[in-house]
């Protein structure tokens, strides 16, 4: 047997991967005709917190939309299944990336700077929307800090059968042949929904929002292993206001189907409970369906009312409420410490669905 000796690590390679990722503005490889085009730029602003203090946040603004300079979460992106998507990204302040979390594009378009490059001035991301589902997009520059700073948004891929008229019913994924077996007992989960609730849960540690853009990247200990949130929110709305704010209250028509999309942007162990029975029909952008012709990823699972659903960091769920009865239903997020699993002080935020 021959033994080949080599250095344990290449210092230059380590430096490029960890401390100083490669910055560049290449042309988009294999660029092709697009069906969807949008722009994103990096923005920073101050946010008034629950106790009257101000914290700095960063996010992705849309320069084509007036008044979009303080987006938290960043504006939701919707693409149809099968479409070619282009996003022209200009960081404007330092190097950044956009990582399309759950999408599987080429490495050049995945937005992970440590394995490709960070955008210095401008780059156009390109990918094809293959699987209908719920995803995220976020910065992958100094990821753990920049995600906490607010650089994230929801990305939704709608099936090709989705109506272009947003006032008409929508679909979570392409529906079954009516003659097929239902997706879950007594209901057809692939049926259209008439109301949609998109809820992003987040927590904020004010100490982190005073850190530098590159804090911790080069091995310096800035305390990123210590996270002590004091603010708890849904869709950027502080708890205490989430049951009245239009961003966290969904109005539905009684007797119609409702879809709830959940995402955890917090660094807590998040438990979500609903005051109504629901079906888990999608996890991390992958549908739970038993129709082998459409993809048998697994069967929908009943989530009885009051049952605690654990949602991990950056995880997404889609919950289906068939023919919602008339009434008012709370969706409660409980934020717990990752190590002790104890609920954080004031660590609860409640959204609502009102069916009339």
Automatic annotation (TrEMBL):
- Which InterPro entries does this UniProt record tie to the protein? Cu-oxidase-like_N, Cu-oxidase_fam, Cupredoxin
Output the Gene Ontology terms for molecular function. copper ion binding; oxidoreductase activity
Tell me the Gene3D superfamilies matching this sequence. Cupredoxins - blue copper proteins
Q: Where is the Plastocyanin-like domain?
A: 69-160
Coiled-coil ranges from the UniProt annotation: none
The record's section on Pfam families has: Cu-oxidase_3 (PF07732)
- Name under which the protein is recorded: Plastocyanin-like domain-containing protein
